[in-house]
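[Meeting: bench + compute handoff]

Bench side (C.D.) handed over the final construct sequence. Compute side (W.E.) agreed to return the predicted structure before the next meeting so the bench team could plan truncations. Sequence as handed over:
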Amino acid sequence: MSTSDERRWHILKTLYDSTAETVHFRDITGHELGDEGSRPWFLTLQTLDAEGLIHYHGTMDGGSAEIADRGRGEVEERRRLLNDPAERRSGAERGLLQYLYQQDSNGERGSDLRGETRLRIDLAGEILPDDFVGRVAEELKEAGLIEGAKYVAEVEGPLSARLTKLGRKCYESGLGADEFMQRQQRGRPSHQVNIGTMSGGNVNWGDHVTQNATTNTGLVADEIRQLVQAITEALPALNLDDEARAAVARDLEVVEGELQNQTPESRGIVQAAMMRTFDAIQGEGANQLAVYLVTTAKHVLSNVGIEVG
């Protein structure tokens, strides 16, 4: 919030909460008219009066003001937002994603959420508490939209964070985090498909595959590739150390290679590579995104006759 906005909100709150019919310039601003620093307050009072939010009666000693019906409605709406848990959470999510996007939209470096340079999120004229913002940041991390770092026991949420590719997509979509994630899940390809023979991009590994000569879309191989891509993009948010992340990336490259060049051994190679990938993703510290990815992957592979537990 700018200094000008802070003055506006201070004046509106003061007049709204006052039990007096009118409030003197000195009691509103803390200044006598003509004092150093009084002019910005005087101009803000005049602006609010011109906008119909207050009635300002200027005199040589500063005059007085009272709130107008329109100003009363603005104060009540701002306070409604502040007291609505859903609005507070939504505001914190938007503020976090916007801040991290502005700091580094590619998510290559972390930005401080605490400390002297910490993020401050303004909602309806009030700064949201750090602990609340920290809890929301942790929820965004669990959803795979940001990657957190630098935790300490006495502070809720990460001390710093960076945007993931999924988080960048969320911010650029203009949607709230919940709606964006719901659309992402609805947009996942359906895995209830029949797989044709080796025409187009179809995969035919093992006797568990249902033969259907009329199927010519090649969706199954594409689905596995999309799954590999989804896991690759989510790697920064899966709480893996550098060694585990590199091992998963290598196994995913193996899977992609087997989709391109299928041999009689491809089924077993993909099965082993995905099992190693799942073991790494579901290791200690696994989050909700990891659980979702593994569940989806097992479903896809089961449909092409590859059981991975």
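W.E. noted at the follow-up: The first helix runs from residue 3 to 17. C.D. will use this when planning the next construct.
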